[in-house]
Amino acid sequence: MRQEATALPLRVDGLRFAAGGVEILRGLDFALVAGAPTVIMGPNGAGKSVLLRLLHGLLEPTGGTLHWSLPRDEARRRQAMVFQRPVMLRRSVLANALYPLRLAGAPRAEQAARDALERVGLAALADRPARKLSGGEQQRLALARAWALRPEILFLDEPTAALDPAATRQVEEIIGAIAASGTKIVMTTHHLGQARRIAGEAMLLLDGRLNAQAPAASFFDAPPTPEAAAFLRGDLLW
Asked: Which backbone phi and psi does 212 adopt, to 5 degrees?
């Protein structure tokens, strides 16, 4: 049987990004492969969010290249992204989940939207205005919208930064379920505990440079660089 082509692996060579005369990313080289979640860590201002936007095609690099395993437009159609503060349409919960499916021309879109809401525990709120949901519920709805598209890659930018511990736990469980369904998670966070719980692979950005990339177990148990060890101890001043 012929194997279906996939967008991953992705190879990034010399990736740079500057804005307003400030260099934010300074020549990153790495690869992303299918499988366990990749969690990108680093202090505020390290370039984590900018990197996700570049990978997803929301920004254009000012230098370097991204080599997807499929043509760029096809690779982009296989991706989704969820932001720290998701945008909610002035519509019901169900209509929010349904909107991207209809844009994509998905078959049986309403059933797919309802299934996604069921998976994130929001089926009972399908008719409620999305903007009246709590912060945690809105983030779960954003994940449902993305999951309903069955993306090959899901980029998550600090998805629990504004949530309380209970809502954070619910979102982490959903992220784990999405990863278990076969979607590659690429996520930023500055919470070490969260990174330990989610990551299969860890990356550390410092001052716009990639300082370390390693399997999560070895990254946390035997940090690959002195800076990574200092970051994990909370001693890194940057």
From this structure: -160, 150
Residue with tokens 């930023």: 188
Tell me what the mean pLDDT of segment 167-195 comes to. 97
3-state secondary structure of 104: coil
User: Distances from the Cα of 116 to the Cαs of 79, 86, 147, in angstroms?
Assistant: 17, 17, 7
CA 11 – CA 8 distance, rounded (Å) = 9
Q: Which amino acid is at 177?
A: A
Confirm if 145 and 100 have CB atoms less than 8 A apart.
Answer: yes
Dist CA 80 CA 156 (whole Å)? 9
Q: CA 221 to CA 228: how far, in whole Å?
A: 11
Q: How far is residue 143's CA from residue 78's CA, in Å, rounded to a whole number?
A: 15
pTM of the model: 0.95
Domain 10-91+136-233 has CATH 3.40.190.10: no
Which residue's entry shows tokens 């148990």? 221
Q: Return the domain boundaries, the chain.
A: 10-91+136-233
Report whether 130 contacts 92 (CB < 8 A).
Answer: yes
Cα distance between the two ends of the chain? 51
Per-residue pLDDT at 237: 57
**Helix, strand and coil percent figures for the chain, each rounded to 5:** 40, 25, 35
